[in-house]
Amino acid sequence: MDISRSQHIPVLLEEIVKFLDVAPNDIVVDGTLGLGGHARELLRGIGDDGRYVAFDWDQRNLHEARRRLKKFEGKIQFINDSFDRIDHYSKVLRLPHVSKVLLDLGLSSPHLDVAEFGFSYNKRGPLDMRFSKDKKLSASLIVNKASFEKLREILSRLGEVPSSSKVAKIIIEERDKAPFTYTDEFAERIARAFAPDKRNKHMAQVFQALRIAVNDELNVLHNALHNYFDLLEKGGRMAVISYHSLEDRIVKNFFKDLFRPLETDPERALYSVHGEPLAEFVGKSVMEASDEELDINPRSRSAKLRIIQKL
Ligand SMILES: C[S@@+](CC[C@H](N)C(=O)[O-])C[C@H]1O[C@@H](n2cnc3c(N)ncnc32)[C@H](O)[C@@H]1O
Questions:
Q1: Where are the extended beta strands (E) located within the chain?
Q2: Whole-angstrom Cα distance, residue 30 to residue 103?
Q3: Higher pLDDT among residues 265 and 164, named by residue
Q4: What does the pLDDT read at residue 70?
Q5: Per CATH, which fold does 119-215 belong to?
Q6: d(CA 4, CA 20)
Q7: Closest to 288 measured CA to CA, from 230, 242, 224, 249
Q8: Going by C-beta distance under 8 Å and a sequence separation of 6 or more, which residues neighbour residue 73?
Q9: Nearest CA to ligand 1 atom 12
Q10: From CA 242, how far away is CA 303, in angstroms rounded?
Q11: For the chain, what are the domain ranges?
């Protein structure tokens, strides 16, 4: 499929629009523009004095989003870089602060629909999985070169793949016969590691692990949360949609620490371990897709949305 025909239905759109509650003068940062589904709605709230800064690390998506959002030209600044580089760009773009932040993590539909993106195990694509070609580490490099220990660790920590040692061993046995080149070929050659009825589920976990490792997704997320919270103005809001437990744990723990931060004043620390809360939840502490949304968009199945407001 060609990217111009790929449809990405924005997840939890109603909740994002309602709870981010974009005002005309807001400075909004959309860290994960994708094909601009959330952006299209949020941009309606931005007036002439507001700004919408949109990141996507994947140049192909950014390019396509720019085409789809043509009517908002002039209101958006497009950035082809990782969203955790906001510190750098806030200086370059002279952003005094940020009013609203959206991070809708992970993959967009084109990553799975367009075979050449190389993220899907049931379509023939290059074993790549880099959001940005500037990165050196690709999925191919990992599966063809990483040590047994490293493979095992990636599979178990980043994909929670069961029997990760067995899978790592099979990867090494297979690559000793011939290097892996394509996504579907890699999946076929390691398929014997899993029972046939569990194959799809576990293959998805293997691909998730490789993708997270290639793009260093957990560190990027951890750093970004700190950077965005520092830049957020008082009363500003930050929404994060995560799609698997590793991401969600990072978001949940980061927010929890804001609700009960450690006291930093040494004198007051004599009386209380915890200082004043730095943020509070907006809406429910975790929001998930309704049955109606699941019916039209199965990809919203694992989504968890958390929104906070800075106090
Ligand atoms: C779930 S999609 C976003 C979909 C978007 N909200 C929409 O409604 O169309 C996630 C997007 O984030 C991008 N992405 C992933 N990691 C990124 C990072 N570290 N920095 C910037 N973009 C990233 C991906 O390329 C993908 O386009």
A1: 27-30, 51-55, 76-79, 98-104, 232-242, 279-281, 304-310
A2: 6
A3: 164
A4: 96
A5: DNA polymerase; domain 1 (1.10.150)
A6: 28
A7: 242
A8: none
A9: 32
A10: 6
A11: 3-110+217-310, 119-215
Rounded (5°) CA angle 54-55-56: 130
Mean local confidence (pLDDT), 299-303: 94
Q: If you classify domain 3-110+217-310 with CATH, what class do you get? A: alpha beta
Sheet strands (E) in 41-85 = 51-55, 76-79
CA 235 – CA 215 distance, rounded (Å): 32
Chain segment 40-74, per-residue pLDDT in tens? 999 999 999 999 999 999 999 999 999 999 999 99
Nearest CA residue ID for atom 20, ligand 1: 82
pLDDT of residue 17: 98
Q: Is 57 exposed, middle or buried (0-12, 13-18, 19+ CB in 10 A)?
A: buried
Mind listing the pLDDT tens digit for each residue in 233-258? 999 999 999 999 999 999 999 999 99
Beta-bridge mates of residue 51: 27
115 pLDDT band, cuts 50/70/90, is: confident
Q: Whose Cα sits closest to atom 27 in ligand 1?
A: 34
Ligand 1 cavity residues, CB under 6 Å = 8, 10, 31-32, 34-38, 55-58, 61, 82-83, 104, 106, 108, 131, 220
Distance, in Å, from the CA atom of 81 to the CA atom of 132, rounded to the nearest integer, reads 8
Check for a shared fold between 3-110+217-310 and 119-215. no
Q: How far is CA 187 from CA 184, 191, 261, in A?
A: 5, 6, 45
The pTM for the full model equals 0.95
Query: From CA 139, how far away is CA 24, in angstroms rounded?
Result: 42
- Cα–Cα distance for residue pair 185/183, rounded to 1 Å: 5
